[in-house]
């Protein structure tokens, strides 16, 4: 078989190269994707008055991204703003997990039943 001379070689695959560039994720995108599962954990930790330093250490120990305290706060704020508001079922489940009664009578509810 003869070698191809540069003038005889196939045209460069520019479309393939463009697709590879578009598919490549930035470091920030990868970090945000790895941080995303920890948003709910951070919610709970903040509710328990954890410091951001402790939260960052916890994330790092559990195979999350290595971020600074400032980066963690920024990513958390960014990802929280992108999330959809919780459904009623999620709110009830959160109350149940927190030990709050979900079927407790409302303060304005009356005990009388009309016949």
In total, how many beta strands?
0
Q: What's the overall geometry?
A: elongated
Which regions have little confidence, pLDDT < 50, spanning 5+ residues?
Answer: none
Question: Roughly what percent helix?
Answer: 40-55%
The fraction of residues assigned to DSSP E strands is under 5%
Structural class: mainly alpha
Radius of gyration: 26 Å
Number of helices: 6
Note the gap between the termini: 99 Å
Mean pLDDT, nearest integer? 79
The secondary-structure element order is: HHHHHH
The biggest beta sheet reads: none
How is the quaternary structure best described? single chain
What can you see in these coordinates?
By secondary structure, this protein is an all-alpha fold. The protein has a domain at 26-98. Helix content is 55%, strand content 0%. The chain is built from six helices and no strands. It has helices at residues 14-23, 27-35, 39-47, 52-61, 69-82, 88-98. The longest helix has 14 residues, at 69-82. It starts with 13 loop residues before the first helix and ends in a 17-residue tail after the last helix. 8% of the residues are buried.
């Amino acid at each position: 078989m003869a070698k191809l001379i540069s003038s005889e070689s196939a045209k460069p695959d520019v479309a393939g190269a463009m697709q590879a560039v578009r598919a490549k994720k930035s470091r920030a995108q990868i970090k945000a994707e790895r941080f995303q599962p920890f948003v709910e954990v951070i919610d709970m930790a903040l509710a328990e008055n954890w410091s951001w330093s402790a939260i960052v250490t916890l994330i790092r120990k559990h195979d999350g991204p290595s971020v600074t305290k400032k980066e963690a706060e920024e990513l958390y704020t960014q990802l929280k703003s992108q999330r959809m508001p919780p459904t009623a079922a999620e709110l009830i489940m959160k109350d149940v997990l927190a030990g709050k009664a979900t079927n407790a009578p409302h303060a304005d509810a009356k005990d009388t039943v009309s016949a």
